[in-house]
């Protein structure tokens, strides 16, 4: 995906709305800057806002034993945070934190729910988005069980690159280990293998994708399935 600049940054869910409804919805949104590590949602705490990343991206995680967390999915300008509201529930099941800092749009939950009830286009669009998320969750569960760590890491780095709209982003070995549910030494070994093959450059948490084609060849098949599912969803909204 090309790099996005602040003058043209959009959220693709909002952009898929018909013109008049998009303008009405945008009028109720507040542009904000999200910072790295900022917590946007926690299980058991009612949602105050929904978030639509434009340049930023979020990590959704679930709590495991002894306080560790497992990554569930990334959300960038293709999606939103607060999808439980589509089911009439304001208590999120997942932690949502900022992994890629940058711009986003947010709206308080009450006006969002009113807009959702008012707009058949929003209901149509977001039901399909929820369908895609369920498909990606199922695929992630299978991926974590059956695929090798190096292939899973390559897939995750490509998903992060797409949402960062940049070849460079920051994520530590420790955080990657938490997200992928493995020991830190496993991440170090897998990242070193990718670096020796000159697919990535990694230094003190700063990652640069050097060879996307090579990284795609190293990633597990889940990457293509994720991309195919979302492409079908986009086609259905046109």
From TrEMBL:
Keywords: DNA-binding, Kinase, Transcription, Transcription regulation, Transferase
Name listed for the protein in its UniProt record: cAMP-binding domain of CRP or a regulatory subunit of cAMP-dependent protein kinases
Domain of life assignment: Bacteria
Cellular component annotations (GO), alphabetically ordered: cytosol
Organism: Marinobacterium lutimaris
One matching Pfam family: HTH_Crp_2
Location of the HTH crp-type domain: 147-213
GO MF term set: DNA binding; DNA-binding transcription factor activity; kinase activity
